[in-house]
């Protein structure tokens, strides 16, 4: 399953402009005192596929396609927390304060797949790197596991943990808007309603991590009965800053809706540790055991939209929320299965590209409930 790896930033801008074009009165002003907020919700996450199984031509001389052993879709939960209104400072209509925010999300999934030979193709797993240091496989024992009428049954257990923390400054502007009535055909300065209007701008520094673990085991139910295992640890740390906004709009019955958005630029640092074992290899009964450590770095853009429906209930504010977040760079493992020089029947001979880290992306979404309580 393939998903686009890039999201156009104009989508966030369009939603922001459309929302701000609504009437700008709100039901309640921002409190200048500190408040503690806690939220929890059901969450989904989409990452790139794990494509470890290779579909080859019938004579296993070249890789023709890849099979998805895990499509990258997860279900899980997300917990959020925020301590806002710290060290407030007011000057006229402007209020500045600090906030500390954080979140933790966890996702798990298990998927099964099958790759079976046809009249034109076969299936194989290749090691993480070529056994020959020169990059040329000179022995069939280095080619991989599979071929010879393969019928691979594969199970992948995959999990992801996503967490982050931020310190931000927010700047709010409270103004009043008065409506006027027509008296005798002339305008009179007689306000009939005065309501505070709040726009909040935010800027902060943040650190995040997205850690992935997967465990693959595959057994060939064909003639060879070869088991293969692959254990991957793929971690990414993000360091950077963001800017954002929040705005509120009143609804009937004392409810209000809040829209927040942010976009940030981060430095992403990725690390990969992979361990591969095969009890037998193509054309040879000698076992293979390999481990690989890789690293990569890249810039990453992270964008988030959050929509809340909330209401004050005396000492606390309760609300329902939905949010979506996109990360432009998430590392993806590209496995060692590209034969650059071609090969001969039943022996993938030639230079392999080796296992490397490529560019992927991530999209998450969460719906849940939250509570906010003033601290004094």
Description:
The chain is mostly beta strands and 376 residues long. It has one domain (10-374). Helices cover 3% and strands 64% of the residues. It contains one helix and 16 strands. It has one helix spanning 10-20, and strands at 35-46, 53-57, 63-67, 73-91, 94-116, 121-125, 145-146, 151-178, 182-183, 186-187, 194-220, 227-250, 255-278, 288-313, 316-334, 356-374. Mean pLDDT is 80; it is low at 1-31, 133-143 and 175-195.
Low-confidence stretches: 1-31, 133-143, 175-195
- Which sequence of strands runs across the widest sheet? 1-4-5-8-11-12-13-14-15-16
State the major sheet: 10 strands, antiparallel, barrel
The ordered string of helix (H) and strand (E) elements is HEEEEEEEEEEEEEEEE
Indicate the overall shape. elongated
**Total domain modules:** 1
Helicity level: under 10%
N- to C-terminal distance: 51 Å
Instruction: Count the beta strands.
Output: 16
TL;DR?
With 376 residues, the protein is mainly beta. The chain is built from 1 helix and 16 strands. It has one helix at 10-20; strands spanning 35-46, 53-57, 63-67, 73-91, 94-116, 121-125, 145-146, 151-178, 182-183, 186-187, 194-220, 227-250, 255-278, 288-313, 316-334, 356-374.
Set out the fold topology:
Blueprint: H1 10-20, E1 35-46, E2 53-57, E3 63-67, E4 73-91, E5 94-116, E6 121-125, E7 145-146, E8 151-178, E9 182-183, E10 186-187, E11 194-220, E12 227-250, E13 255-278, E14 288-313, E15 316-334, E16 356-374
Antiparallel strand pairs: 1-4, 1-16, 2-3, 2-6, 4-5, 5-8, 6-7, 8-11, 9-10, 11-12, 12-13, 13-14, 14-15, 15-16
């Amino acid at each position: 399953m393939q998903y686009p790896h890039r999201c156009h930033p104009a989508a966030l801008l369009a939603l922001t402009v459309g929302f701000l074009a609504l009437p700008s009165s709100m039901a309640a002003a921002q409190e200048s005192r500190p408040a503690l907020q806690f939220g929890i919700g059901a969450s989904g996450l989409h990452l790139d596929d794990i494509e470890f199984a290779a579909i080859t031509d019938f004579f296993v001389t070249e890789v023709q396609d890849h099979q998805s052993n895990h499509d990258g879709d997860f279900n899980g939960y997300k917990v959020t927390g925020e301590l806002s209104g710290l060290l407030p400072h007011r000057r006229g209509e402007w209020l500045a304060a600090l906030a500390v925010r954080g979140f933790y999300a966890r996702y798990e999934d298990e998927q099964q797949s099958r790759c079976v030979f046809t009249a034109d193709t076969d299936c194989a797993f290749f090691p993480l790197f070529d056994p020959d240091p020169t990059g040329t496989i000179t022995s069939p024992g280095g080619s991989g596991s599979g071929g010879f009428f393969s019928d691979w049954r594969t199970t992948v257990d995959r999990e992801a943990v996503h967490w982050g923390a931020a310190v931000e400054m927010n700047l709010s502007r409270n103004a009043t808007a008065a409506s006027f009535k027509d008296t005798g055909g002339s305008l009179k300065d007689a306000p009939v309603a005065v309501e505070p209007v709040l726009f909040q701008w935010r800027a902060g520094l943040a650190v995040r991590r997205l850690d992935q673990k997967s465990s693959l085991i595959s057994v060939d139910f064909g003639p060879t009965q070869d088991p293969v295992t692959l254990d991957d640890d793929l971690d990414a740390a993000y360091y950077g800053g963001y800017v954002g906004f929040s705005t509120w709009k009143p609804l009937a019955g004392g409810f209000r809706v809040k829209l927040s958005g942010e976009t940030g630029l981060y430095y992403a640092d990725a690390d990969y540790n992979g361990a591969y074992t095969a009890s037998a290899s193509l054309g040879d009964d000698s076992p293979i055991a390999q481990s690989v450590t890789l690293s990569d770095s890249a810039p990453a853009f992270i964008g988030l939209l959050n929509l809340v429906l909330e209401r004050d209930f005396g000492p606390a504010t309760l609300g329902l929320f939905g949010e979506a977040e996109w990360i432009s760079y998430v590392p993806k493992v590209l496995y060692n299965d590209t034969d650059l020089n071609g090969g001969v029947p039943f022996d993938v001979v030639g230079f392999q590209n080796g296992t490397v880290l490529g560019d992927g992306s991530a999209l998450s979404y969460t719906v849940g409930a939250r509570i906010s309580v003033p601290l004094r």
